[in-house]
Each structure stands twice: as C-alpha cells, then as structure tokens.
Amino acid sequence: MNNHDLAPSARLYFLDWVRILAFFLLILYHVGMYYVTWGWHVKSPFASSGPEPFMMLSSPWRLGLLFFIGGVAASIMLRKLGAAPFLKQRSLRLLVPLVFGMLVIVPPQAYFEVVEKLGYADGYGAFMGLYLQGYGGFCQDGCLDLPTWNHLWFVAYLWIYTMLLGGLVAALGPRFDRIAARLGALLRGWKLIVLPAAVLAVARIALVEHFPTNHAVVNDWCNHAMSFLPFLLGALVARVPGFWSRPAPLRWHALAIVATCWACLVMWIAQWEITPPPPALRPIAYTVYALMAWCATVAACGFAVRHLDHDSPARRYLNEAIFPVYILHQTLIVVLAHAMKPLRIAPGPEALMLVVLTTTLSFGIFELVRRLGVLRPLFGLKFERAAQATVLPVKGTVAHAAG
C-alpha cells in the first residue's frame, strides 16, 4: 500500500513527471513532422517516409495520455475547490493563453506555411491583416482557416472537456463518486487493460472513417472520442482510493502489447501503400490502434508510479515550465526550420539542432515570462509579483497535475 491508497487527493508526483516527459516528447514529434511525408506547415527538402514508423511509436497515445492526466487533475481540483471556483480558475488559465497564442504565438506558423506552399511575398504585416480578417483565400488541397489555433487545439479541447466535467460533477453530485467506485471495482487485473481499450476500439471503429480528425471541434467526433474518453476515465479513477497501485504490476505486459501493436500498425501501413487491405480487415487495425493507445497509458502510469513518485526541485521547476514551453515550441520549430532550410544541412544534424535550439529558446523565453508578472497569465501561469516569480519554491505545492 502506498500513500495514494490512503489519500487519493494527495499530490501525484509521478503524474507530474509523466506529463513533463509527454510534453517533451511533443518537441521531438513536431521536429519529426518536418521530415516525414505527412502534411505539416513547412517541409524539409529531405522529407521521406523513413522516419514515419518511429513517429508511429507515439502517434496513437501521446495526446490521449495527456488528456487522461488532465482528467485526473481536473477531478482532484474539482473536489478541492468546488465547481464554480474551479471552472473560473481553469477558464482563466486556459482561455487567456489560447487567445494570446492565436493572436501572437501561432500566426508565424501560418505565415511561413503560405510562404513555402503558396509563395506568399507580401510580408508578415500584410499577412497579419489578412489573418485577423479571417481571410479564406490561402488554398492548396483545401483552404487555410484563419485565424487558427494549430497545436493549441489541445488547450481548446482541454477547456471544453473541463467545462463538461464541471457540469457533470455539479449535476450528479455524490453520484459521480458512486459511479467512480463502481468503475474502480471493475477495473482490476486484466480488465484494466481490456475494458478501456475495448471502449476506445468500438468508438474508433464506429467513427474514424466518417469523421476524420480536423481539430475544429465541430465534426471532430473520432478525435473527441479518443480524447474525451481518456479524460473522463482519468476524472473517474482519480476518485478511486488505491487505484494507482494497479498499473504497476501490469506495466511490462502493457509495454509488450504496445510494442506488438506498433509492429502490427507499421506492417499494416506498409501493406496499405502496396495494396489496400480489404475493408473487412480495417476494424482489426482500428482495434490495434486503440489497444496501443490505452496500453501505453497503463505502461506510462505503471512505470512512473514505481520509479518517479517523488518530489524534487527539478519537478517543481519543470512542472511550471512545461506549459509555456508547449505553447512556444511548435512556432519555434517552424521558424527555425524555415530559417535553416537554405543552409542545406543534412537531416540528422539539422534535426538535432532543431531539438536543441527549440528546447533552449523555449526555456529561455520561459525564464523571462516567469519573472514578469504581466506575462505570466498569457502563458498559463498563476499571476505573481515579479519578486516572487524569481524564487524557486522549496516546498511542494498543490497545483494542477496537468495543464
């Protein structure tokens, strides 16, 4: 028995570490997007399908994991603060960075996209005039929707799901905890892997071919299913005493399933490029995808609760830094990649440089942001006076575990 068995509202340090590592993984993933054949804002002249199997190692699960952690954090804070104060706090901490990001952080991504894909040459100032007007004439295999939130769709969806959860908890009252208790009694042993994966698989089979991901909220039903269901599951299991001792014994089994599912998906994609498999086999691939998505979450939580359930100055610093770094990272990748393209650096060294420069610049900007009280809310940080913001706390805080 660990401290989480006795105190389900205690600080879940291991989930902080999972969240931190998952957000760092996004930097690697979005650098990788520059080098694969999949659609993205800018593209390397060396782009190829070679890195794509390695991108598939995290593609099915990285955001579902973050939504799961977000659901855990929201549920704990709802219990602590009550619905109205919590929803007000979350709205300020998510919507202010979202609006600021759409107006200031994200536009360079769209600008360099139209420069590279459409040869736009009127300069950034003229582009921003069109951006703010909602110009719809930037078209190539579809038209660019402006203004846009690009990678900040995660923030918008997290806010929507948080509002839904707050309304659900307020409407159900004590019944929410009773539902959580029943679910907790069910999710033991092998059922912890099979049952959530089965729900995700059914949702994916039913929706993926009819509602391709668009990150536009409307008609994004498959993406909602693969995001909101983990979020809601996280919110429920956060109310189950002793739940966090359950993933650890399953961590190696879950990891083995992830590796097997990854190999199957890579072979499926390779076969698709040669001859598309019969439609009757597609539900199998969708099931494998969902199984990989959920087993990765079980494995991550299992290994983290076993090895990372501790506090440290590094955790406290990174836990504050990671959301501003997330807001900044994709724009930095796009700007740096565009600037480095004329140098014709080989893709290996260039990718390493992009990772290093994106990380160091993101943290450099964070160091400025955390010291200026007026900037902190724009990047999702609690407002503090400048003198307080420069001091790294010595004691752990009861802050949100995600976002």
Automatic annotation (TrEMBL):
<feature type="transmembrane region" description="Helical">
    <location>
        <begin position="227"/>
        <end position="245"/>
    </location>
</feature>
<feature type="transmembrane region" description="Helical">
    <location>
        <begin position="20"/>
        <end position="41"/>
    </location>
</feature>
<feature type="transmembrane region" description="Helical">
    <location>
        <begin position="185"/>
        <end position="207"/>
    </location>
</feature>
<dbReference type="GO" id="GO:0016746">
    <property type="term" value="F:acyltransferase activity"/>
</dbReference>
<keyword id="KW-0472">Membrane</keyword>
<feature type="transmembrane region" description="Helical">
    <location>
        <begin position="284"/>
        <end position="305"/>
    </location>
</feature>
<feature type="transmembrane region" description="Helical">
    <location>
        <begin position="351"/>
        <end position="369"/>
    </location>
</feature>
<keyword id="KW-0012">Acyltransferase</keyword>
<feature type="transmembrane region" description="Helical">
    <location>
        <begin position="154"/>
        <end position="173"/>
    </location>
</feature>
<feature type="transmembrane region" description="Helical">
    <location>
        <begin position="252"/>
        <end position="272"/>
    </location>
</feature>
<keyword id="KW-0808">Transferase</keyword>
<feature type="transmembrane region" description="Helical">
    <location>
        <begin position="94"/>
        <end position="112"/>
    </location>
</feature>
<feature type="transmembrane region" description="Helical">
    <location>
        <begin position="61"/>
        <end position="82"/>
    </location>
</feature>
<dbReference type="InterPro" id="IPR050623">
    <property type="entry name" value="Glucan_succinyl_AcylTrfase"/>
</dbReference>
<keyword id="KW-1133">Transmembrane helix</keyword>
<dbReference type="InterPro" id="IPR002656">
    <property type="entry name" value="Acyl_transf_3_dom"/>
</dbReference>
<feature type="domain" description="Acyltransferase 3">
    <location>
        <begin position="13"/>
        <end position="365"/>
    </location>
</feature>
<protein>
    <submittedName>
        <fullName>Acyltransferase family protein</fullName>
    </submittedName>
</protein>
<keyword id="KW-0812">Transmembrane</keyword>
<dbReference type="Pfam" id="PF01757">
    <property type="entry name" value="Acyl_transf_3"/>
</dbReference>
<feature type="transmembrane region" description="Helical">
    <location>
        <begin position="317"/>
        <end position="339"/>
    </location>
</feature>
